[in-house]
User: Fold this.
Amino acid sequence: MSDRRHVVATGAIMIAPIPGATATKPGTATRPLPGVHVDVVRRDGTPCGANEGGLLVVQHPWPSMARTIVGNDERYKQAYWSDFPKRKGHPGWYFTGDGARKDNDGYIWIIGRVDDVVNVSGHRLGTAEVESAIVSFPGVAEAAVVARPDEIKGSALVAFVTLKANTERSDLSALKERIRQHVAAEIGHIAKPDDVRFAEALPKTRSGKIMRRLLREVVSGQTVSGDTTTLEDLSVLEGLRGGDDE
Assistant:
């Protein structure tokens, strides 16, 4: 899809192109709608630079904002407001739970849930952080990282990567290694994907959300199960099953 609209817990669309007014880019949610104030920040609350992965926050109340979780006010506060709480000189921000980056045009790219954590050789790694590092590599359009069981490390990381149209594809093996080394330089050696698979497209719902459950089943050698009725393009799965590169 050309517009990966972002919807937070309220069910309301927060970041989306305005028809006829906002230029779209494949894979991006574009910009916040009027009246919605969001930013991509680091853990300490400072704004991220262009194309730097960070945390997606909503900085001001918005129409139809959820006020609580029915019967559990404390859970609401802990889930959405505890990461960037209200304090002197700070109004408090709503944390969506998503990792994101903002490009040079101010467009928001949703990376994925930051609570998706895997254990690799005793190290807890957020897959969204690894995805952010991969996407920052020149020529990469989109990435999704999932874990597969590994007898030695507990979990091994597998990255599914789509390339930009003008990316050189003459030596994919070398390109895989360059991506792996780039992740090592950005995050650390332990975060290098064990396997990088190039794909023409990633399995997504019609709203643009990557269906990581299907990717985990593919890399684990399982038969894809569960509900796939929301999958945008069923043919995407066939190429992924075989692990074929572009």
In short: The first helix runs from residue 73 to 80. The helical segments are 73-80, 127-135, 172-186, 212-219, 235-241. The domain at 1-110 is CATH 2.30.38.10 (Luciferase; domain 3).
